[in-house]
Amino acid sequence: MPQWRRASASPRDATASSSETARALAGGNARVSPEVPAEHEGERDDGRWSALVPELLADILRRVDAGAEKWPGRRDVVACACVCRRWRETAVALVRPPLLCGGITLLASLKQPGPRDAPIQCFIKRNKKNSTFHLYLSLTQGTLVSLTGQGKFLLAARRNRCGLRMEYIISTRINLSRGSHIGKLKSDLSRTKFTIYDWQPQHEGVKAPSSRCRCWLASKQMNPLVSTGFVDTGEVSYEYNLLKSRVPRRIHCCIQCPADEGTAMDPEEANQPSMRSLVLYNKLPRWHEHLQCWCLNFHGRVMVASVKNFQLIAPEGTGEPWGIQDDETVVLQFGKIEDDVFTMDYRQPLSAFQAFAICLTSFGSKLVCE
Prior knowledge:
The chain is α+β, with helices and mostly antiparallel strands. The protein is built from ten helices and 14 strands. A hairpin with a 4-residue loop joins strand 10 and strand 11.
């Protein structure tokens, strides 16, 4: 039999298709419905979820929040906040900030002060090939913990060289894609002074640039939001050292810390929080005669000697607004665990974003200190 005959449809199939068409024309509905765009397909389902009684919705989210105290169980709370806008607003109002719960849940928690009693334990992984740094939340809290596994991802940063200067871009996504940058870090020519910039979205009071200004920005290929979005929130400086690497580094920080908040603020809708100035300096290590090296008590959280290791404390009498009673309370601790793994433990009044930015200044060589 020829090939074209084997590929042709049989009379029975043709009869079935014609009968289905006739049946649709005879008994079907001839009205034509408009096609729903892809971006509006989920609005109907969102309406069902948002139509819940407020008391019932609050009770559901309260039970979910109470049933998962730590990660990875906290992902259920994040999943509920992603259902629709009403669920998100309710979750933001119910979830406690790190200052009260001692943990990180929502994205807004990354820019809120840490707990007062015990620090939040994190670790940083460095990739020397592409000059990236990733911050993770330790899922197992303790002294001698294994940090080789994957924790809960929090922030990422990439180092860019601008001549002798260094610039770090901080993002909330692991691939550092555009649209996820929440801050940056810039150094001077000697790489001993760093400025921390925090990205703050424009509020309603900001005036839009004029048409002439927009044309100039377009010709220069600049973003008009950058000039008003990035705000200087702190400085980290390293003192000049004549003995280079023979003595420890001396670090001085001046950070604008956010005030205490009772709820997890939404970064898209909340107004700019009030700030307070905080001065920190590194705790000087002591010389160990037997080991012939400089030593600090990291309480089992640091295992490798490095010039990058430090502990930041507040001067006596300056940390009372944040519950720091003396100059022995360590606000931020950073140290080396493995070749490319470092611990980062922070507490109030620093946030995860600020602590991560301060720790990034320790990487890289200092031209006048080493």
